[in-house]
Amino acid sequence: MLSLSAAWKLVFALALVGAIFMSACARAPRQSVPRSELQRLVLCALTLYAVGGLATLTHHEALAGFVYGAGIMVAALAAWLSRGRDQEDPPDGDEPVDEQPPPEPDGMPRLDWAAFEHEFREYSERVRQPS
How far apart are CA 60 and CA 83, in angstroms? Predict the structure, then answer.
């Protein structure tokens, strides 16, 4: 049987591991969070780490552990929020990508064949260095 002290430490450790796991594996937010908000969260996490360090130096181990854990959870939240996407971000592999250029008014994309042939001829006639 576990003592009460060991039981809450185990639950606390599992909560921290769960928060870290969720920040890495949970579905990313649909919209990105402004960079300034993420910087504030990271600053809060660093402040919590500093307070935890101060609590450790003054021999308040339980308080230090709690504050360190809060810092870890805030950092995990910042990591998860940083995975949000903007509309301008390229799509993931699961979203369709339009690989064709937009059509001209008559429905077919235009290609300047004379320029293509000129550039191809320059490319094919260049002097190549052996590898």
Answer: 35
Query: How far is 80 from 68, CA to CA, in rounded Å?
Result: 18
3-state secondary structure 70-94: HHHHHHHHHHHHCCCCCCCCCCCCC
pLDDT digits (tens, 9 = 90+) for 62-98: 899 999 999 999 999 999 998 887 666 555 555 556 5
Helix (H, G, I), strand (E, B) or coil at 103: coil
In angstroms, the CA 33 to CA 86 distance is: 9
DSSP sequence for 12-75: HHHHHHHHHHHHHHSPPPSSPPPHHHHHHHHHHHHHHHHHHHHHHHTT-HHHHHHHHHHHHHHH
